[in-house]
Amino acid sequence: MKDILSSTGFMKIEFPFWITRTVQGSIREHGHEFVELVYVVRGKGMHVFEGTHYAVHAGDVFIINPGETHAYEVEKGEQMEIINCLFMPSFIPDALLAELEITGSMDYFYVHPFLKEDVRFNHRLNLHGQDAAHVLMLLENMLREMNGRSIGHTTLIRLQLIELLVLLSRYYTLMQQQRAHPSPRQMEREMTAKRIYGYLERNYEKKITLQSLSYLFSSSIRQLNRLMQEEYNRSVFEALHEVRIERAKHLLMESDEKVIVIATMVGYEDQSFFNRLFLRHVGCSPSQYRVSG
Predict the structure, then answer these.
(1) What InterPro entries does UniProt report for this protein, alphabetically (predicted)?
(2) 3-state secondary structure 130-184
């Protein structure tokens, strides 16, 4: 079983955020309970993600999701300086996203981290010039606020993180537009479906309703389901169940928690409903899955 870093070792429940700038050496494979956004300031090394090696260098940006494993390998004589930005998904509340009307401007947070590995890391963002300078400035501002802890620093950090994610999403969108695509309208429909799926991946443990998603993504319930059917061939709730069951499978193998606790952890209050759903998706009960693994 690989090391899983707990959020409590880095951040407080009332302010689930932490940032540091460090010269990164080699470190063994590990996972964590929080989101990790990495910016390579200078140098180069190898990023090992889920056992696959990817060369990284100055200007690279990538996100590691909770539960994913990664490591770094830096050759002797080489240096790689990075900024690590760690936070829980709850650090950016749904109410704030809705108030700012920016769910369509957060694709680097809700879409890119859930693409296939080869797309995420072979076609990752690499920034240079003014783009790199702008991102570095935002990260350094967050570092300064975190270290200074002056009045209002928590508010400024939250807003600066949102600005950073919106900015990265802009660069990500420009990168997407460079590839062939049927039409801008079709691209927007696909991206909206991916945003919804990414949101479900980030917030599977919450009580999610079609009404709340409709408000958050400024679309009717009918439109949400139509977009998901077109892109993923499943309804919103079918996709949510799929995400939750996959997370439950991981928890069954990686933890010793009771089945009823795991059901709650992935968003189900009714264990019997969870058991039936798990059987339908996996072909066996949660207990049998744990034993067979």
Answers:
(1) AraC-bd, Homeodomain-like_sf, HTH-like, HTH_AraC, HTH_AraC-typ_CS, RmlC-like_jellyroll, Tscrpt_reg_AraC-type_HTH
(2) HHHHHHHHHHHHHHHHHHHCCCCHHHHHHHHHHHHHHHHHHHHHHHHHCCCCCCH
Q: Is 141 exposed, middle or buried (0-12, 13-18, 19+ CB in 10 A)?
A: middle
Tokens of 6: 């707990």
Chain-centre distance of CA 229, in angstroms? 23
Integer Cα distance of 228 and 190 in angstroms: 9
Q: How far apart are CA 76 and CA 65, in angstroms?
A: 29
Measured over all CA atoms, what is the biggest interatomic distance in the chain, rounded to whole angstroms?
58
SS3 call for 60: strand
Q: Residues 112-121: pLDDT tens digits?
A: 888 888 888 8
Q: How many residues does the chain have?
A: 293
Straight-line distance from the first to the last Cα atom of the chain, in angstroms, rounded to the nearest whole number:
13
* Alpha-carbon gap, residue 205 to 63, rounded angstroms: 20
Tell me the C-alpha distance between 193 and 275, whole Å. Answer: 28
Strand boundaries in 60-176, DSSP class E: 60-64, 70-73, 80-87, 125-126
Q: Is the pTM of this model over 0.90?
A: no
Neighbouring residues of 254: CB distance < 8 A, sequence distance ≥ 6: 1, 4
Task: Give the integer Cα–Cα distance in Å for 253 and 167.
Answer: 37
C-alpha 193/C-alpha 179 separation (Å) is 19
Query: For tokens 């409590």, what's the residue?
Result: 8
Q: At residue 124, what are phi and psi to the nearest 5 degrees?
A: -75, 165
Per the CB < 8 A criterion, the answer to whether 61 and 125 are in contact is yes
What residues form DSSP beta bridges with 84? Answer: 20, 38
* SS3 label, residue 224: helix
Give per-residue pLDDT as tens, 178-236: 665 567 777 788 889 999 999 999 999 999 999 999 999 999 999 999 999 999 999 99
